[in-house]
User: Which sequence fits this backbone?
């Protein structure tokens, strides 16, 4: 998979892949709010939404409604490093949700590919490449 990252202006940085664009922005130093989430907020949202895909799939396979189900994601920051040291995913289900599926629902959410990449992070190579000018 390849993504093209570009800089459309201001503090915006966008990612393009396939037919999609993920827009990100930073709050301006002049107090203007960002026009899109920050890259880090987008990254964090991918954890809960990925778990949500697995919860949705689990429920759909069993004909269970997801209408009153939601996931609350909480990040706990390490006070020494300032980095996130723990992420909680609380799956809230309505009273009528069958108790026999509670643990299975957790196991389904636990299959999230984003979470698995946290547990086994990829190697990163960052480098520059000079592109040749083309004349028309």
Assistant:
């Amino acid at each position: 998979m390849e993504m093209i990252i570009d800089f459309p202006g201001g503090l915006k940085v966008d990612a393009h892949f396939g037919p999609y664009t993920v827009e990100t922005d930073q709050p301006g130093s002049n107090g203007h709010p960002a026009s899109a989430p920050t890259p880090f907020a987008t990254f964090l949202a991918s954890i809960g939404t990925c778990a949500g895909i697995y919860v949705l799939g689990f429920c759909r396979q069993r004909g269970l409604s997801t209408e009153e189900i939601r996931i609350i994601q909480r990040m706990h920051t390490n006070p020494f490093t300032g980095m996130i040291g723990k992420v909680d995913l609380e799956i809230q289900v309505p009273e009528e949700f069958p108790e026999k599926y509670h643990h299975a629902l957790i196991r389904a959410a636990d299959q999230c590919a984003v979470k698995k990449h946290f547990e086994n992070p990829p190697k990163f190579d960052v480098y520059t490449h000079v592109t040749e000018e083309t004349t028309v």
